[in-house]
């Protein structure tokens, strides 16, 4: 309770209720009340006088009707100070008529405005733009408009209470529709400029200019799609605003606005068809991390058809990328390779050389999931070696992620599989640092979910895993990225399992896996099933463990998801070992041998070590110690790094037992 406004509110409430002692929830509601009342002492005193009758939280919910609610006050006050409306009426009546006109028209702005915007929106036949500037200056002097910034970057805003009052006056004047139209037209033009500038301007500078306009964007769109608005303005503004939603990772907001624009779109003209193409591309992206794949795929296919009809190579590439990403997320890996190659072929004819490298990156990722780690690294290293800054800065809008961050995700995964755990972890750490530095939430969450969290868990770097998981959960929750949040909880469950808290880990894994299965976002689903099976194995629950690993193996077979099949076979072997059946050891050995074969064919040295360790342990228990040592040590000796990882420590400890 350090802020003066909050202290005043609490003091006035305690005058009527001496035992008032707010808990955390009530304190948060109190702070919200004071914030919405702009810290105005009279408004706070009047609100506090209503707290005893309504309660703090109910009072907070009723502030939209503040002028009816906040009446009364101390009997010793002047009449004009006994209601909030009376105070504002008194101030309004003291204004010259041009100042009244400017004040009520400025009420259309939400969050703030610049003088240029005020001049464009508040000026009219009866008041010139220069008079608007003078009016704003006078209103600042009279404390009805607040100014911030210096002389070159000055911005202005109406306090929320003043704005609510001025909006009433704007409605009473009959000018609301005309002013709202000018406001929407101004922001359509502003965001069309923003869309063009995004191609060349520094991202941080671009965001500093346009991110503060998000509230005015929302107001303009609300009016444009209202019964008295202009849907054509709304459609154009929605298209122009998509870079801002993408850069701020406002996925749900983007989807809602785009769906509204599509519903209002009037097809028929070439301009209407181009807008439709752009909107469907935006819709496909916004559906990617919040819902199942059917609507997303339909949106991307529609965008592709329209792009081909319009001969728009840029949007053909965007749509192909969207279809590819959807297949990856849905675990359809063979189809992804064909789409990636189609993208690469088309990109070779595009003017931007960076587009062809994006195609190589897509091919590399597809090869990784299909189990070809050498091919994956060849393509990814070509991307990183030949990377050039795109001629347009809009790749985070066109292909949703920073391409270097995304390429290094695949590189880190391939490095770990090939036995370079230390390099993989270094790559993960530097990639997260880069993703944080560019301030792009989707790129960061992608790097955390697809590389940092799983690689740290695979390497047994549990402290690093805990840090990465916390980052993923925090960013996913703040940006309503439901799919990534479910991934984070799966990783959290696996972390608990590895730390010995098997029951809680299993519970987390089962719930989050069910969510991902329902959403049909299954890019890492097989790995989560494997972690679930390992949890059941640790708990001695063989039957559900075998059910989970059999589902994982069936998915690998059906989707040609070969990158982890060696480990799935090994985990099944470990579960079979726990059975009491006479042939359990023979069945386990068969799976360990198959695991070794897959790992060797793929050059996946890390999987090979795990399979060799499991098989060597089995043989040692059977008295075949010489065979066990002959199997394990040549695999161990091929490692050149990662000797502090859990897998190499386990292999080294077993080799000591083997003599």
Task: Based on the model shown, name its key terms.
single chain, 659 residues, mainly alpha, Arc Repressor Mutant, subunit A, two-stranded antiparallel sheet, 74% helix, 1% strand
Description:
The chain has 659 residues and is mainly alpha-helical. Among the domains are: 4-79; 95-174, Orthogonal Bundle (Arc Repressor Mutant, subunit A), CATH 1.10.10.10; 589-659. Helices cover 74% and strands 1% of the residues. It has 35 helices and 2 strands. The chain has a two-stranded antiparallel sheet.
- Mean pLDDT across all amino acids: 87
Put simply, the count of helices is 35
CATH topology of the domain at 95-174: Arc Repressor Mutant, subunit A
The count of β-strands is 2
What sort of overall outline do the alpha carbons produce when their principal axes are compared? elongated
Could you give the order of strands across the largest sheet? 1-2
- The end-to-end distance, rounded to whole angstroms, is 68 Å
Indicate the CATH architecture of the domain at 95-174.
Answer: Orthogonal Bundle
Low-confidence stretches: 69-82
- Quaternary structure annotation: single chain
Q: Biggest sheet: strands, sense, closure?
A: 2 strands, antiparallel
- Percent helix, as a range, is over 70%
By CATH, the superfamily of the domain at 95-174 comes out as Winged helix-like DNA-binding domain superfamily/Winged helix DNA-binding domain
Structural class: mainly alpha
Structural Rg:
31 Å
What proportion strand? under 5%
């Amino acid at each position: 309770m350090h802020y003066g406004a909050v202290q005043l509110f609490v003091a006035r409430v305690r005058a009527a209720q001496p035992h008032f002692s707010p808990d955390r929830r009530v304190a948060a509601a109190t702070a919200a009340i004071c914030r919405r009342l702009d810290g105005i002492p009279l408004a706070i005193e009047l609100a506090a006088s209503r707290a005893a009758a309504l309660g703090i939280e109910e009072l907070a919910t009723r502030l939209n009707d503040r002028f009816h609610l906040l009446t009364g006050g101390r009997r010793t006050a002047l009449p004009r100070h006994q209601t909030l409306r009376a105070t504002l009426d008194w101030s309004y009546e003291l204004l010259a008529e041009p100042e009244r006109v400017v004040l009520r028209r400025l009420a259309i702005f939400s969050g703030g405005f610049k003088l240029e915007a005020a001049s464009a929106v508040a000026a009219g036949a009866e008041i010139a733009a220069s008079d608007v500037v003078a009016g704003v200056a006078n209103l600042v002097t009279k404390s009805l408009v607040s100014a911030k910034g210096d002389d070159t970057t000055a911005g202005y805003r109406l306090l929320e209470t003043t704005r609510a009052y001025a909006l009433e006056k704007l409605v009473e004047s009959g000018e609301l529709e005309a002013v709202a139209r000018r406001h929407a037209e101004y922001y359509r033009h502003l965001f069309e400029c923003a869309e063009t500038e995004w191609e060349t301007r520094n991202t941080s500078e671009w965001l500093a200019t346009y991110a503060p306009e998000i509230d005015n964007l929302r107001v303009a769109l609300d009016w444009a799609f209202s019964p008295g608005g202009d849907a054509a303005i709304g459609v154009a503004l929605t298209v122009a605003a998509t870079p801002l939603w993408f850069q701020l990772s406002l996925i749900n907001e983007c989807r809602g606005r785009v769906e509204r624009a599509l519903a209002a779109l009037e097809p028929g003209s070439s301009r209407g068809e181009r807008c439709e193409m752009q909107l469907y591309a935006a819709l496909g992206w916004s559906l990617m991390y919040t819902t199942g794949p059917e609507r997303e795929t339909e949106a991307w296919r529609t965008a592709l058809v329209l792009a081909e009809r319009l001969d728009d190579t840029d949007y053909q590439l965007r749509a192909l990328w969207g279809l590819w990403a959807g297949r990856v997320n849905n675990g359809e890996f063979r189809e992804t390779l064909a789409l990636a190659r189609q993208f690469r072929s088309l990109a070779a004819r595009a003017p931007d050389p960076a587009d062809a490298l994006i195609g190589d990156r897509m091919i590399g990722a597809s090869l990784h999931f299909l189990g070809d780690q050498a091919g994956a690294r060849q393509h990814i290293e070509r991307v990183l070696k030949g990377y050039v800054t795109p001629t347009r800065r809009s790749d985070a809008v066109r292909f949703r992620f920073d391409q270097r961050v995304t390429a290094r995700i695949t590189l880190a995964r391939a490095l770990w599989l090939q036995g370079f755990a230390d390099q993989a972890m270094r790559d993960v750490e530097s990639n997260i640092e880069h993703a944080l530095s560019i301030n792009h939430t989707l790129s960061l969450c992608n790097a955390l979910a697809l590389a940092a969290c799983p690689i740290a868990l695979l390497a047994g770097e549990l402290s690093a895993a805990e840090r990465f998981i916390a980052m993923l959960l925090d960013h996913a929750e703040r940006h309503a990225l439901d799919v990534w949040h479910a991934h984070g909880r799966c990783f959290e469950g696996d972390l608990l399992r590895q730390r010995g808290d098997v029951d809680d880990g299993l519970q987390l894994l089962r719930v989050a896996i069910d969510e991902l299965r329902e959403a049909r976002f299954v890019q890492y689903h097989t790995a989560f099933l494997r972690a679930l099976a390992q949890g059941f194995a640790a708990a001695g629950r063989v039957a559900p463990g075998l059910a989970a690993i059999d589902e994982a193996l069936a998915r690998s077979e059906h989707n040609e998801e070969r990158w982890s099949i060696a480990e799935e076979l090994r985990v099944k072997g470990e579960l079979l070992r726990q059975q009491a059946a006479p042939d359990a050891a023979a069945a386990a050995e068969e799976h360990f041998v198959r695991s070794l074969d897959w790992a060797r064919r793929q050059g996946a040295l890390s999987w090979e070590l795990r399979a060799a360790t499991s098989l060597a342990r089995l043989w040692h228990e059977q008295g075949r110690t010489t065979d066990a040592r002959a199997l394990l040590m040549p695999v161990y000796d091929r490692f050149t790094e990662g000797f502090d990882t859990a897998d190499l420590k386990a292999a080294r400890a077993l080799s000591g037992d083997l003599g």
